[in-house]
Design brief:
Elements: E1 3-7, E2 10-13, E3 18-25, E4 34-39, E5 46-51, E6 57-59, E7 67-72, E8 77-82, E9 91-97, E10 109-114
Parallel strand pairs: 2-10
Antiparallel strand pairs: 1-3, 3-8, 4-5, 4-9, 5-6, 7-8, 9-10
Length: about 120
């Protein structure tokens, strides 16, 4: 059973930066393609950024050029560096497999950007 634990969120001012971390445990074969998702109040969860096992990345249009996803396969960690944050980035951020079936969702980490 894979467990995902996200951390690194917080309150930051407009234009600030945060680095989110995701620790995956119970992955006997290592992490598959992974992604960061976010869910704002009243909205559906959306994919923010994805990274393959070999390190290829993709980003949702609203975050291109501002967010950077990375991974450390030896440590089973996935990271999301977020720069130039905007109030519309406020959401709970989750990591999970980029594919099906998804792992059980973690508790997420809250990111709040003040204007």
């Amino acid at each position: 059973q894979v467990q995902l634990v996200e951390s690194g969120g917080g309150l930051v001012q407009f234009g600030g930066s945060l680095r989110l971390s995701c620790a995956a445990s119970g992955t006997r074969l290592g992490m598959p393609n992974m992604a960061w998702f976010r869910q704002a109040p009243g909205k559906q969860r959306e994919l923010v950024a994805g990274i393959t096992t070999s390190g290829s990345t993709k980003y949702a249009d609203p975050v291109k050029g501002r967010f950077t996803i990375s991974r450390d396969n030896a440590k089973n960690m996935v990271y999301l560096r977020m720069d130039s944050l905007k109030p519309e980035d406020t959401a709970v951020y989750y990591c999970n497999r980029d594919g099906w079936p998804a792992f059980d969702w973690g508790q997420g980490t809250q990111v709040t950007v003040s204007s």
